[in-house]
Amino acid sequence: MRKTTIVSVMAAGLALVPVSGALAAVNPAAPNPYPTRDSQLLVDFASPVTATGDPDGTGKNIASINADPQFTALGGKSLKLDLTDVTGWHDPEYTINLAEPVDIKGYQVLAMDVFIPDDSIESSWYQFDPRTTTTNPGDDTMTTVSYYGPGNMHAGWNHLMWTLKNGTDTKITQLSFAGNTGAAYHGAVYLDNIRVYKGNFVGLQPDEKLIMGFDKPTDKDFFTTLGDVVTVGLNSDKQFISGGDGSLKVDLTGHASGWTNSVARADDWGTTIDASQATAIHLDFFIPPGSYTATDYHELGFGVVGDGGDVSGFSDFVTDGQWVTMEIPLTADQAKMLTNVKGMFFITNSGSDWTGPIYVDNLRAVMPAQ
Questions:
Q1: Alpha-helical regions (H) of the chain
Q2: Is 33 in contact with 157 (CB distance < 8 Å)?
Q3: Is the pLDDT of residue 10 over 80?
């Protein structure tokens, strides 16, 4: 959402949070966009885990265990973070140490559920940024910390998802999270159901319906730009295609820094599919390393245009040099706006000017079997 300046902040909280207890049912209020996909649970807070956090250096651990079922996504407990008066950037904001390393070989998508009560935040922006500590291939005594950009959050239930970097699917030992806000928290935040999904989400999945594959030469003609240097074309180079025969090439060379909504937009490409029962919208992005050469931040996002209006995604850090899938989780009311997905738009945010194109492919709706 906003500029993320990396400043090292040492968490001082050292209190241990032991967790135990049998799993309860899944909370039907919590989002579950892809219930049939193969996944592995990392943390549900009903099993032993250690959580610490002291973002403001007060000497008090903000992490504790919640047993109120309205704030749990899976099982009978969740992690409660008392973030009252916490604002701005903290890295880490809180840390979760796994009881034992978990082998995530073959699992390339990290996801978690977060619940924020209405009175805990304002009309501003709130983000969690994960850092995964994984063992090195062939040597469990060596570890690597990988940094991921913000999952943007709002009041109510949030489903956050990140495509892991290639080569990090070994054993995971620790999860820490940076936090960034535009205004202070006014209360607690709850998180639960941290898991990894098999494979990655790039390309059309069995529980998805394709909306637009960007395979036809005329697909580029639906898009208009803001009138600066941005151009939209169709790509046929296989290394920049995640599925089908083509992808959309959005050339951002020379596009200015800062936040831009609808840097390229298609308002009406005709009839596609009825996504009114969808649980999420997915889109694949690829940023070549040369397309952003500054050492500060760069983010991408997207939204879709339905017959009932726009449903926006948020900008997010994207790992350069590999395909990643970005997601807009849908509420039931948002899905009802999408009886026909007739267009889309792209969002950019950066600290410096862009130096090359991005590639976009396979706009699709997640449609789990009813």
A1: 332-336
A2: no
A3: no
CA–CA gap between residue 134 and residue 131 (Å, rounded): 10
Whether the CB-CB separation of 213 and 101 falls below 8 Å is answered with no
Give the pLDDT confidence of 299-330 residue by residue, as tens digits. 999 999 999 999 988 778 889 999 999 999 99
User: Are residues 241 and 362 both part of a single domain?
Assistant: yes
- Is the pTM for the entire model greater than 0.85? yes
Which run of H or of E encompasses 111? strand 107-116
Residue 118 and residue 55 share a domain: yes
- Dihedral sign computed on CA atoms, order 228, 232, 233, 238: positive
**How many domains does the chain divide into?**
2
- Per DSSP, 223 falls in state -
3-state secondary structure of 331: coil
Residue 203 lies in a domain: no
- Could you tell me if residue 32 is inside a domain? no
Q: Which of 172, 198, 224 is the last residue of a domain?
A: 198
Q: Which element (helix H / strand E) includes 257?
A: none
Structural domain of 75: 39-198
Rounded Cα gap, residues 134 and 78, in angstroms: 23
Residue 73 has a CB neighbour count (10 Å cut-off) of 25
Question: Shortest CA distance to 114 belongs to which of 174, 55, 74, 60?
Answer: 74
Q: Residues near 240 by Cβ (< 8 Å), separated by ≥ 6?
A: 247, 249, 286, 288, 359
Instruction: Please report which confidence band the pLDDT of residue 370 belongs to, taking 50, 70 and 90 as the band edges.
Output: low
